[in-house]
Amino acid sequence: QSVLTQPPSASGTPGQRVTISCxxxxxNIENNYVYWYQQLPGMAPKLLIYSNNQRPxxxxxxxxxxxxxxxxxxxxxxxxxxxxxxxYCAAWDDSLSGVVFGGGTQLTVL
Amino acid sequence: QVQLQESGPGLVKAxxxxxxxxxxxxxxxxxxxxxxxxxxxxxxxLEWIGTIYHSGSTFYNPSLKSRVTISMDTSxxxxxxxxxxxxxxxxxxxxxxxxxxxxxxxxxxxxxQGILVTVSS
Lengths: 110, 121
Hints:
- The structure holds 2 protein chains of 2 kinds.
- By secondary structure, chain A is mainly β.
- In chain A, about 0% of the residues lie in helices and about 45% in strands.
- In chain A, strands 1, 3, 4, 7, 8 and 9 form a 6-stranded mixed sheet that branches.
- Chain B contains no helices and 11 strands.
- In chain B, strands 2, 4, 5, 6, 9, 10 and 11 form a 7-stranded mixed sheet that branches. Chain B has a 4-stranded antiparallel sheet with strand order 1-3-8-7, with no helix packed on it.
- In chain B, a hairpin with a 5-residue loop joins strand 5 and strand 6.
- The N and C termini of chain B lie far apart (about 40 Å).
- The mean pLDDT of chain B is about 95.
């Protein structure tokens, strides 16, 4: 049971916009930054979004994120086949004094 | 370009201690960043194990804290993970990561390729 809650799966067709939610609490998401990671099949995860809504260099602006209260969401617009991956949200948890992850969302591009 | 490379045995017997090392190139681990370990059981999600700073400060996942030690050798530019009393539940791909400049940020911006460690009975 992960501290952060994500839907186990999501899907969309090429060109569509999809969103992935991440739900937490006041000890993590509400009072700390949210981060998103993309894990392509067979690869190590990659930082996708940091500090709630910032993209590292090289990450397309098709990827965006927002936070409201104790929840966050990742949006992918103009969906492409290469976006098929697992996506994880993460945050620092003040109560646990540690890092917590969501359980991950497997995105399928139909 | 910062690169991280995990090394260690791929097979560990149950009840023994898992030991891994992460060699860092392209950046001195004694400068500014925290460094950590994350694991991923086969077919499952990510789990943070712990993080270390060159000052010696460590932060551990409460669920693993009693069994985990993370240490650092700045002269070799590497850091290590030790996990004692392993069971089959510790079978996972273990990643070493650069954590970020502030421990409460979860900015894992560099990852090793990962090493699969299997615990055998």
